[in-house]
Structures are given as C-alpha cells and as structure tokens.
Amino acid sequence: MHYAKLAALAAAVLSLAGAMPAAAQSQDANKVTDLGVYPPWQGGRNNDAAMRGFEFTIADADNLADFHGSPQDPMLSLYVGGNYFFAMAPLVAAFEQRYPEYKGRLYWETIPPGLLVRQMKMGGTITVGNMTWTVKPDVYLAGKNAVQKQMDDGLLVGPVVPYVTNTLAIMVPKGNPAKVTGLASLGNASIKLAMPNPEFEGIARQISSALEAAGGKPLADKVYKAKVADGTSILTHIHHRQTPLWIMQGKAQAGVTWQSEVAFQMQAGHPIEGVEIPAAQNQTAIYAGAMAKDAPHPEAAKRWLEFIRSPEALAIFGRYGFKPYQETTQ
C-alpha cells in the first residue's frame, strides 16, 4: 500500500471523506492540539442529525467520538466495526443520495465488533459516561467470521454479505523515530507499543498470526505477553481511536492497525505514517454484514446491505485502500 498516493488521492475529497480541513491546521496552538490530536477528528461531519441544538464537544473531556447521528427514532441504525469510522460519513451521504427519504435519519456506532455484540445482548442499551440510551441495530457489520458467529448464535439473520477486504500495517509517528522496519522490530524492548486487545478486538487474532509469520510464536508471545507484563505493550479498548491518539501524544512509538487507518490519519494531516508489512507476513480481513434479528427497519437494512456492495460505496472504500471483495478471496 502506497500511503503517500492514498493521501494525495484523498486531498481532493477531504470534505466528503470527513477528514479535518486544512484551515483547522492553521488555528492557534491550543485549538490545533485539541482538533489535531483528540478524536473525533472529523469536525462534526460524521453526524447525520439535521437539528443539532446546542453543540458541546470538549475534545479531551466530553466526547462521544464513536456514536453518530440522533438516537431518537432513526430510520436505519448501523452497528459498524469501528476501524472504518472515517468512511461512514461519505457512505451515509451516498446512501441518502440514493434514498433521500432517509436523509438525516441514520444512526451508527463504530466501537469494536465484540463490544457491539455485548450491546446487542443488552437489547441495544449502552452507557457512556453519565449517559444511557437504547438503539437496537438493523445491521451489524464486522469481519466475515464475526458476522457468521453472530449468525450462528442467533443474533443475526442471513444472508451474510461480504463487501471489501483490508490488510495490516504498522502505524508509527511521522519520521518513524524508533526506526521500526517491520513486525520483528516490535519485539524490541525499547519500543513502546499500543496493541489491540484480544478480548474484544478481532484484529488482535490476525495480528498474532502475522507476528507468528514474521518471527514465530516467540515474537507473538513477546509482544502480547512479555511486553504486556512489563508495560511496554499497552492494550487498547478501542484501537482505531487509542492507537493514533497515543502515538500523537508520545505514549507509544508503534502499533499494528489496518492499513486503511494509517491512510486516514495521513489524509487528515496528522503526524503519523505507516510501515508496510510484506504479503507473506500479512493478513487479509474480509468485511461483511447481516441484518439483526428483529431489526426495527428490515427494509432499510436490506437497502444498506445492497448499497454497501455498490460501485459508489466501493469507490469510497477505495479512497482508503480497501479492495472489493471477490468470491475467490478467502
């Protein structure tokens, strides 16, 4: 993946993609720190609510970065595995252009897939800080295996709809001061890591497989056991927010993410870059979705699952390096 090419491509579509406008980068130092480092990073563009009322977001204190739109009577609610949160605003805009009757009436969440499952099992109720609300999902979107598992467990109904694929990369600060050259570097005791938590972030399983491909089980154990024990690997709860944030704050020098997340951070103008992982060591994720059992809006759910494989949706994913799913991709 050529991140510089992706960043250049997205420069022409930043406003549609929801990334931070260049003007924000020229504000005073305090505002640049708040807007440039702390989530949600899109300056309100990932909010589908037409009437927003009093706007109150304090970047490092009161901030619901992964909850989008209004939970009051949505016409379509999406539970989306969080690692393509940045693509959702243009995807929603394209969907609403196709179906204008839904404009301003979508709600979506982008927390890790395992946490979305916990919320589904609680009837769609979630608490963040001092606020509790309930929105039952119409569609669950995550890795294909995770979607199939929830299908088998009775939380979803078929069919499983795959749409794009993604690969891993190593996210590092701009300039790569720790001189990370590949996965083997992550075993270095002097390099502090931010790593997805295996308990509820599915990417952790694929990272472990990639580490084993690069350095055998000893490397995987070093990163996910020894370095966790001594504090040089910090486990995230929500890697698509915490990994880039901790890197920009200087708390970590590297972390394995999806390559699309590196592409977004670079497109947003953040001081981050990526180290590519060779194909022989890399892992390919297949993204899929399915309708939730007892979905409140089944017709809207079917429309979204059809739309997500459309040429316009795949073109939006392509801005971040996702590839269209092919039946031969396994």
Automatic annotation (TrEMBL):
SUPFAM superfamilies: Periplasmic binding protein-like II. Residues 1-24 form the signal peptide. InterPro entries: ModA/WtpA. One of its GO terms (molecular function) is molybdate ion binding. The keyword Signal applies. It comes from the Bacteria. One of its GO terms (biological process) is molybdate ion transport. Keywords: Signal. This is ABC transporter substrate-binding protein. It comes from Sphingomonas montanisoli. The lineage of its organism: Bacteria, Pseudomonadati, Pseudomonadota, Alphaproteobacteria, Sphingomonadales.
